[in-house]
Amino acid sequence: MASIITATTTSGLTQSADNSGVLQLASGAGNLVTVPSVTGTAMVSGNMPAFSAYASAGTSISNATFTKINYATENFDTNNNYASSRFTPTVAGYYQISATARLGSITASLVVWSIYKNGASAATGGSCGVVAGYVYPAISSLVYLNGSTDYVEIYCYQNTGSSTSTDLGGSGDYTFTGVLVRAA
């Protein structure tokens, strides 16, 4: 049990108490915030979108062309906002978006990894002057998404002189992830 302060539509604020040292602030619809007395941290419950997906097949990346990377298999999707290698959250806020992959053995080239927001690059990272071997591009950035029309995808650019492909990973390898950090 906890000490609960509830906002109701019929009797205003109500309070119920116990000796647990935990405080919960609630609405008539349920608990919103729990504050443990020991840590002093606030755990926000409710609709906080997060997802993790990985590639179940390689993506062929044409030479000198930004190509969408397919992360078709979901590890989890807490709010059903992920489909077709695209994340379209329904909660406005700031999202930590990250992606990793491995490109097959390539020769001297430029590899650019990009988070695309609404079809245009919002953040880039890359490997310059790769001599030869596998390349492990990764990117992570905080991106604002409006909760209605904004979406993000991952794209890759490479200029090896021919097509190359991402390698397959498992459920924990080469992932595309996102989580709401703070609602707007």
Protein described:
By secondary structure, this protein is an all-beta fold. The protein has two domains: 42 residues, no CATH class; 134 residues, Sandwich (Jelly Rolls), CATH 2.60.120. It is 0% helix and 59% strand. It has no helices and 18 strands. A five-stranded mixed beta sheet has the order 2-1-3-4-5, with no helix packed on it. A hairpin with a 2-residue loop joins strand 3 and strand 4. The protein is elongated. About 3% of the residues have low confidence.
Descriptors:
single chain, elongated, 59% strand, 184 residues, mainly beta, 5-stranded mixed sheet, Jelly Rolls, 18 strands, 2 domains
Query: Roughly how many Å is the radius of gyration?
Result: 22 Å
Specify the CATH class of the largest domain.
Answer: Mainly Beta
Number of helices: 0
Q: Note the beta-strand portion.
A: over 45%
- CATH fold type of the largest domain: Jelly Rolls
Provide mean pLDDT, rounded: 82
The figure for the number of domains is 2
Backbone shape:
elongated
The main pleated sheet reads as: 5 strands, mixed
Short description:
By secondary structure, the chain is mainly β. The protein has no helices and 18 strands.
Write the layout of secondary structure elements.
Elements: E1 3-8, E2 12-16, E3 22-27, E4 30-36, E5 43-44, E6 50-54, E7 60-61, E8 67-68, E9 73-77, E10 82-83, E11 86-87, E12 93-100, E13 103-117, E14 120-135, E15 138-145, E16 152-158, E17 164-165, E18 175-183
